[in-house]
Amino acid sequence: MKKITSIFFGFLILTNIVQANQSLYFKEIFDPKDGWYPTYKITDILESKQTDFQNLAVYNTPFLGKILVLDNVLNVAEHDEQNYHEMIAHVPMMAHPNPERVLIVGGGDGGTAREVLKHPSVKEVVVCDLDNEVIEVSKKHLPTLAVAFDDKRTTVINEDAAQYIKTKENYFDVVIVDSCDPVGPAVVLFQTEFYKNVYNALTKDGVVSAQIVATYAHDLLKQLYDQNKTIFKHMEYYTSIVPSYSCGEVAFAFCSKNYGPTELLDSKHTAALGNLHYYNKNLHRASFSLPESLIKKLAEPATVGGFKGEVETNDDNYNHLLFSEKYETSRGIFPTLGIKKVLESKQTDFQKLEVFETVGFGNMLVLDDVIQVTQADNHGYHEMIAHVPLIAHPNPKRVLIVGGGDGGTMTAVLQHSSVEEVVLCEIDPECVNVGKKYFPEFASSFNDPRVEVRNEDAAKYIEGKKDYFDVIIVDSSDPIGPAIVLFQEKFYRDIYNALTHDGIAVTQSESMFYDAPFIKELHAQNKSIFEHTYYYYTTVITYPSSSIGFSFCSKKYSPFKNIDAKRIDALKNRHYYNEGRHRSSFVLPTFMGDALRG
After folding, report:
1. Which of 475, 478, 494, 515 is catalytic?
2. How far apart are CA 287 and CA 261, in angstroms?
3. Which of 156, 207, 231, 575 would be a feasible disulfide site paired with 293, CB 3.0-4.6 Å?
């Protein structure tokens, strides 16, 4: 095995366990053509075997707890399994008037069955998982999930679910397809024949939920969408963020014979389900809001031939350099990308700056070994940090951007026709230079006559401004080193003073999945300064938790006060932002909502 250096793993054959400095790391290998390999430090190898169907392993990690890995793909992590299991289970269960009999396809870890059994109406749960070894290993190493197998209402069947379901007709109220991803033999669980058999196995009000793929896998989602629309009365997608998954935001298919996903929600009660970590009824509704690019994809002319899946590739064709981010080193979490070429590498007066051409994410800017932006997944960040405050303000004319030297946030801001002046205050001129050079989609914004670039300390610059900016956007790096000042009370009070009487500020505020205590403190601080303070979030695949959050701070307006569909439609080249995502981004999982209220 190759040794890991500080940044590059080196040229290596794609194996899932790497050794460095007497430590072991699990490197997920799912889609090497994208060059994306989430990597996690391992403290113990608890199980590793080849079953009759797959390679199975259980590792202990410093932050995610125990992780279950099947064929080198992380399937379950103790730290965030509730994000997945609560959403795949409670959404369909809450959409059925009286679910009594439930079939779970796959789900051998037991987490989905555990959530289903919280519903008092349930009389029977059938877990149909081909590989009994998954169930036995879960009982041994993941007892908080596998508790469902001790419930007398649970029956385990170890056989091919595609064959089993043919034997059932008009029997199950809810079918949940908790399977692995649609590659190899599992593709059959996503195809037309299987879903027709599922339809026949359901009662008249029957509901289906199924784990599909990441929301960015537009072609696969389109195939299944067009296929299942011809089978079910309702076919929609909803999402959940699972930080330990390589995709971050996973999509579920909701299919129903009768009721839509939220028709019965107001008549349902969650008290009987106990204390949930992630799911709540507001999040249930919000989870059906999709990124703009996916909505546009689903609206295209229908595909033909049903779900085909992806063609598997030969991993040996994808040996390359790997860059591994070090921001979450203390947690043993390393977002890792394949690198084609080093385009720029220098020490500026302020930081280490690098630009890489990646295998699957285009050009990538890295500051002090922390990923800042890639061409492929920047939209979720730049559009949400810019459009949310500018749409919430009725007439934003003067905008200050703190940081943001790559130009992405500025490009989004300049799409708003009301904007007359943008000040980009970036302390490091080299960030601006590489933005112009390596991110051409942003470069033209620097030549816009409305733009003034100032290479100076924003904390000092803003001290001299009073009642001037309508919107201030703090597009900063993480709260380490010199950037800490941009998260402190004095800076936020200076922002308040620099804003007009109805001004709005939005600041990058870390991930709720990894930094909830920090966000809670920041939120409390800002509530003492601003009349309106909210936390909202977005998804960015290459960030450590595949998500990032923002503080919305306003003197006058809530984030929903001035939403105007015509103004949103006028924003061109939107990949992520739309009204649905604007609203849903403020709907927090239960654990985070509780933290901010506490």
Report:
1. 475
2. 10
3. 575
Using alpha carbons, select from 264, 376, 331 the residue that is nearest to residue 514. Answer: 331
pTM beyond 0.90: the answer is: yes
Residues ≥6 apart with Cβ < 8 Å to 362: 374, 375, 376
Contact present, 116 and 130 (Cβ < 8 Å): no
Q: At residue 282, does pLDDT exceed 90?
A: yes
Buried b (16+ CB within 10 A) or exposed e, 30-58: bbbebbbbbbbbbeeebbeeeeeebebbb
36, 230, 340, 364, 372 from 356: Cα distances, Å: 14, 44, 7, 5, 12
Q: Which residues are CB-contacts of 173 (< 8 A; sequence separation ≥ 6)? A: 96, 98, 99, 100, 101, 102, 202, 203, 205, 206, 207
DSSP secondary structure code for residue 21 in this structure: T
**CA 171/CA 126 separation, integer angstroms:** 11
Q: How far apart are CA 323 and CA 598, in angstroms?
A: 39
Lowest-pLDDT choice from 157-171, 326-340, 520-534: 326-340
Mean pLDDT for the stretch of residues 26-45:
84
Question: Per this entry, what is the length of the chain?
Answer: 598
Q: How far is CA 235 from CA 207, 260, 386, in A?
A: 10, 9, 32
Helices (H), ranges, 76-164: 81-94, 111-116, 132-141, 143-146, 161-164
Q: Tell me: the pLDDT tens digits for 73-126?
A: 899 999 999 999 999 999 999 999 999 999 999 999 999 999 999 999 999 999
Q: Closest Cα partner for 125 from 134, 116, 133?
A: 116
- Give the separation between CA 201 and CA 251, rounded to whole angstroms: 23
Helices 512-527/489-498 angle, 10° precision: 60
Query: Measured between alpha carbons, how far is 48 from 36 in angstroms, rounded to an integer?
Result: 23
What's the Cα-to-Cα distance from 433 to each of 163, 357, 417, rounded to whole Å? 59, 16, 26
Largest CA distance in the chain: 75
As a whole number of angstroms, the distance between CA 432 and CA 542 comes to 21
> What's the whole-number average pLDDT of the chain?
91
Q: Would you say residue 148 has pLDDT above 90?
A: yes
Annotated active-site residue 178? The verdict is: no
Q: How confident is the model at residue 182 (pLDDT cuts 50, 70, 90)?
A: confident
Residue 514 CA to residue 394 CA, distance in Å, equals 34
User: 60 has which bridge partners?
Assistant: 44, 66
Termini Cα distance of the chain: 48
Q: What tokens were used for 84?
A: 């997945």
Residue type for position 224: L
C-alpha R_g of the chain: 24
Two structure tokens written together for 473: 């956007």
